[in-house]
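Narrative of activities, Objective 1.

The group set out to show that a structural description can be obtained from nothing but a protein's sequence at a throughput compatible with the screening campaign. Below is one input-output pair from the validation batch, recorded exactly as produced.
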Amino acid sequence: MTDASDHADGPAVPPVPAPDDDVEPPTPDYGGGVPEAGEDDRGPDSGPDAERRKEQDEREADDRGYDDLRRVHQLVNNNFYGVVDASGAAFGFGAASSLGLAPGTIEPEETDRVLRFYVPPQPCFDAALGKLHEDGLVVLTGQDRCGRGAGSLALLRKILGKEAKLRSLSPANALSELAASRQLKRGQGFIILDYVGELHVEAVQAYDIGRLSEELRREGSYLVITAGDATSRRLALRDHCVPWQAPDPVDLFEHCRENLPQTGLEPDTEKELLERVGEQRGPADVVAAAVALSRDGAEAALDTLRDRHREQVQEWFRRKPPTEDLLPLAALAFLEGIPERTFEKECAALAAHVCNWEQSGETPVVEADGPKGKPLRGAAADQSRARWRDRAAGLVTTEHRPGPSRDAERSERRLVFTTPRVRELVIEELHDLYGYALWYPLRQWLSELALLGDLDSRTEVARGVALLARYALVEVDENLLKVWSDGITSQRVTAALTLGFMCDDEHLAPQALSIVVSWVDNSGPGRAVTAAMALTGRLGSLYRLQAVNWLLFLTHRGERIAFSARRSLVLLLQTAEQDPDRVLFTLRYVRTVIARAAPGSRERSIALRTAVQLLEAARLQAPEPVTAALLRTVPDSARHLGSLWADVLHSSNRSRAVSALCRTLVQLRDDPAVTDAVGELGEAMRNAMNRRQWTALCHHMSIALKHPDYAIPGAQRLAQVLLGSLRGPAQAESQYSSTSLRSTPPFTFAQGGRNK
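Output recorded for this entry:
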């Protein structure tokens, strides 16, 4: 589509102030890539009709996929990474576990909360501090939950002082971007939590690390990276690694007690408590016990340390359950909460996969020295539902829940674990205790569900696979995600949901980002579309800069991929409705891309197509325009929406923009409180338009407001507020008659981001 904003009266868009560094889009290289096979090519035997049918089928399939994503996003809490209450946490775990995980600025008060009970572990703290002083950067390696994240904050605060604002960088490609940056400011502190490596074609080499170290030292800035043990084997970083350890748990516990209100303890109780504390490996567990002791007493602290759910799950597996008990529990780990009738059907399917595997002559699921399971066939008379009382007592219960869009009278009985932690522990035990004989048929069954299951089942499969990724990430990536990401729509949606649920774990979230980025380029159109789907929801909320950046890159690919990328950007805005910062970030980013694109360029045309779909989008929870909801609830959104509307209104997308503006006014017509916001919207549009462009807007609005859908008194009143705010002093240019404009029908009802 050609950008039609280059009128004879000069530039259509005035300079837009550059956003903050956190949201400034880098200059992408859109022209250097080579289209992949199947993306833009047409085979010699494919005629135009066959190609059109194929494109139509793909578009309809992708539509179904995005419909599924919208349904899931309506049910999932998309503000998981909002403001964190860290009042009782330390070491970057517990309630404060996400601090620094999302790229951005870490305020001093946030660091203070996390380090409230901090005890520097020795000798690794002093070793890391010395290396940081010497080289300007250090890599803290070690096991998860050993305090590496809090250690990075403590090291930087030790060097830069308590008032320093720290910057968290993306775990993917951050080193190469920082090494190439010429914007390092003096006295900055950077952290990269759970570094996953570089994903560009040219990996960061020792030379680049050395150059980065020199630049950091020259500017008096410092970088701390946390990573797994494998990082110490990377040649470029090997000389900068310091193995990290958690502090002595008893010392940490006593330190916490000294800084909390005291509680008297009986000698026997204190002895048991200290013994339990000494068994802990995670600093967060020790701090949680100390806080519980101070707040609720010794018994609450012991309950925190005993982990009764783990003891229950381990005891159940110690009994070596027979096949007829093991398989339903394994199935429930991946299908919790679906209707019982559906669950029973899928259990039978899993049993069939296991039977087929055993009949192939391989090792049976039940170990030779364990109890002999009854044959899975011929069990019609078995009271299978009643057996749950004995099969998994204390682990599983039943609830009556309504399904989506159903009232209480349509509720169904569903099997659920007694707590979410039990589900996680069951998957952990299945992974630790059982081998190929169980997991091969289980993977086949999961893949069948991803292919053929309904949306509720596939959503639960995604949750379960995300939990499995905590213990078997490589297996999940290679055997499930890679296959699903290049499959049909149902599989691609399941893969995208899995990556989103992986973000519930702070150590898996960087891995999820790494996987998605690896699919964005040179992995085929199917995986590129899956990547676009995955960059919505939780992943897009956590890594918002990377998500918007990569989605805008994908809008420059083949039409199918570009269409999906635009739909994903719309979903990002829809899911951010209750997160004002993320709303303003997304709008400001698109504004900046439009302002920086050359008039008449392909980049500008693509950015304008994206902008008009954002303006046309409907809310997730209701059919009303999302722009109306933002004007009501998000302060300062009018300024950014006004700029976007001005850009689109004097382009070839004018009629769609007018229709979107009229729908917004109609939706707001009965809300007197929004009058000021509409006035601000008009003021922002005035600031971005000249007299001739304003005249064109008045002309098209006058036509559109005569349409029966818009000719409503309340909407007419708001239109007067909007247009009245545009009336400013006449400019020193000739009058531009509105009748000379080409009249275009303004009624293109393309909602929800669909490009009609």
